[in-house]
Every structure is written in structure tokens, then in C-alpha cells.
Target: Large ribosomal subunit protein uL30
Amino acid sequence: MSSGNVLRITLIKSLIGTKRTHRKNVIGLGLKKINSRAELPNNPAIRGMINKISYLLKIED
Model:
């Protein structure tokens, strides 16, 4: 993957008190604990998951 097609995602808030579907999205993105990071491809499926839980994440292009 080239650097332009990668999103660096960091979980910055706790999952306690969030909806079950939001927790499933966090797990689907490969994040587990606070400050865990993942580098994922920039595609519509990943963007949709990020948009749903954007209040929990920090996103770097």
C-alpha cells in the first residue's frame, strides 16, 4: 500500500457505555485498548466504519 492509501487510526476513548454496534466496529477495525493503533486501507467500507465511531477515534491520513 502506498502512503496515500493508508489511514492511521488510534482509539482515544473508552468503549464503556457505547452501543454494541459501535464496539463491534472498533473490533472490526482491529483496535482493542485505548491508544491502540491500526493502519488500514482508505476505502468506502473502512470510511463508513470510521464515520460511525468517529467520536472514539483519532484519524491521520
User: Anything to note?
Assistant: The longest helix spans residues 20-28. The chain has one domain: 4-58. The helical segments are 20-28, 44-52. The CA atoms of residues 11 and 57 lie 5 Å apart.
